[in-house]
Amino acid sequence: MKRIIIDTDPGIDDALALLLAFSSPELKIEAITTVSGNVSQHKAHLNALKLLEFIGVKNVPVAMGAEKPLLREPMYAEEFHGISGLGDAVLPEPALNSDKRSALQLIFDKIEEFNGKLTLVAIGPLTNIAGALLLDAKKVEKIDELVIMGGAFQLTPYGHGNATPVAEFNIWHDPLAAKIVFDSRLRIKAVGLDVTTDPKNRLTKTAFSNILKANNVRTRLIADLCQRLVEKYDGMSLHDPMAIAVTVDESLAKTSKYKVEVETKSELTLGQTIIDKRRYSKPREEDLNVEICTSIDGERFLKMFMERIVME
Ligand code: BDR
Ligand code: CA
Question: Quick check: is 239 catalytic?
Answer without folding.
Answer: yes
